[in-house]
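Quick one:
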Amino acid sequence: MARIKQSISWWCFVRGELTPERLVRAAAEIGYDAVELVGQEHWKLAKDHGLTIASIGGHHSLEDGLNRRENHDRIEREITENLVLAEQWGIPNLICFSGNRNGLDDETGAEITAEGLRRVAKRAEDAGVNLVVELLNSKVDHRDYQCDHTDWGVRVCQMVDSPRVKLLYDIYHMQIMEGDIIRTIRNCHSYFGHYHTAGNPGRNDMDETQELYYPAIMKAIKETGYEGYVGHEFIPRGDPITALRETFKLCDV
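Output:
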């Protein structure tokens, strides 16, 4: 069984004295396969170091997303443009967002979100790129965000019924909202096109100070036959390169 491909979320680590050049060089030396959520100006740098771009944003914005019909024309244009870039650069995932509820009930929100995704699903299929709707917590970080439970996201995927419309299962966010991480991965993995990690509480390093045990979680992901990337999206408390090296070893099951 192949090892899990690990990725780095750019925004968490390029800060202070850690330049883009140092980050990609260190990532490649440690053994990472990819970076993600990285500005286009750095794509060539990553590629030159043998790193894939695992994901980019598919559209704007997190709060004002697919659950509003008035956004669908704009989002369709943005996703279509980003699908062209994803094909050109070999990017496997575009991250999509439900948007906030703003009083919208969950059933209607799911139906409208699915409508918006159906408009671009065939283009994603033709491009061979996943549209992954991100599961985020609405308790701590993203108040009122609608795609805040796995069941809601799965219903959206079922309504769209496309092999290229899936979920970004963010383990940190779903630990906050519902827990039961390994059982959920085992039961719902066919709907998961990408994964994100972080320690909880605090969204920091995945060490002994937090409640998630990532070796077991990574083993569960691997046992599903998953062949995509797992992106680390945490804020390191200390030296970021040391944190990346320790995280890689922890998750290299």
